[in-house]
Amino acid sequence: MAAHETAAVQETDRRSFGRSEVLERQREEFGGFSWGADFFGWLSAVGVATLLTAIVAATGAAIGLTKSSDATSTVGIVGGILLLVVLMIAYYCGGYVAGRMARFNGPRQGIAVWLIGLLVTIVLAVAGVIFGAKYNVLSGLNLPRIPVGEGSLTTGGLIALAAVLVGTLLAAIAGGKAGTHFHRKVDRVGLS
Length: 192
Hints:
- The protein has one domain.
- The chain contains seven helices and no strands.
- The chain has helices spanning about 5-15, 20-30, 35-60, 75-100, 105-130, 135-140, 155-190.
């Protein structure tokens, strides 16, 4: 067989696979967790959270929202909601980055970004407890916090914690799913 005939046969064989069969073969080969993509997604989430928190804090300081000391005031509640929104946007972006880098299993990549963030937070909190306040990285960062004292765990604090955990998890999953859409568009063009 001539070279051009061999290429034509290979092209026909490749096109004989449907879109779903090709994607399934690719997913089997390259699917699953991509810890490198997930780590860079988490770094993106941390970067976005830092930038957005700085913007929110600067805006609050500029319009005089930091003058209230009552933790249950409207300012405290609004600050908590803004912090939740900032974290959700950050984890959406982190999930998007991981889903886009990994190509497959975007929601799974988003979950991994969230898990890395949770694990790092737990490790830093435990290190602060074990080594004392001097090494408590989380308290030393002076980031805006949900208005609940560190020593007391109230119903409001539990609700805020649950909102942050569930909200950031859902945002990371949605971001991971959105990150894989680009690859589906490319696959549709490539397999048509």
